[in-house]
Specification:
The chain is an alpha+beta fold. Helix content is about 45%, strand content about 15%. It has helices spanning about 5-15, 45-50, 55-60, 90-100, 110-130, and strands at about 20-30, 65-75, 80. Strands 1-2-3 form a 3-stranded antiparallel sheet, with no helix packed on it. Helix 4 runs antiparallel to helix 5. The longest helix has 18 residues, at about 110-130.
Length: about 130
């Protein structure tokens, strides 16, 4: 976790007067979307996965790894994930364009703003890579 992320989370802690659990994992947040509860309809996730060039057989063979969120505020039941430049790629753009048309999914952000950020930042995001 970088200095910027820590600074933002520190400020949120002060504002809501709650200590964050940093780098928390959840059973439902993993590198294998097939690990999701069987009640979850993951047709859309499968569709996005395939369109991004994913290999279903390779996914099944992959070792399960739980992903970490930047911060979790347990009392408020809020997850915070800091979006940095490397998140605004053409791959996220494809995913957001798919999500935009699913009315049953409620988002806590303006999807059109994120789409525009992906369009304007994708080249820089790919150059930056996962190092933030």
């Amino acid at each position: 976790m970088g200095k910027f992320e820590n600074m933002i989370i520190d400020e949120i802690e002060k504002i809501i007067n709650e200590k964050a659990i940093r780098q928390k994992t959840f059973v439902w947040l993993s590198n294998k979307h097939t690990n999701i509860n069987e009640e979850f309809n993951f047709n859309l996730i499968d569709e996005i996965f395939i369109e991004l060039g994913g290999n279903k057989e390779g996914l099944e063979e992959k070792k399960l790894s739980l992903l970490k969120v930047d911060a979790f505020f347990e009392n408020s039941n809020v997850i915070v994930e800091i979006d940095e430049i490397q998140h605004f790629t053409e791959f996220r753009l494809l995913s957001l364009n798919k999500l935009k048309h699913v009315k049953s999914i409620k988002l806590a952000y303006d999807i059109d703003e994120y789409i525009n950020l992906c369009i304007s930042k994708s080249e820089k995001a790919l150059r930056k890579g996962q190092n933030g």
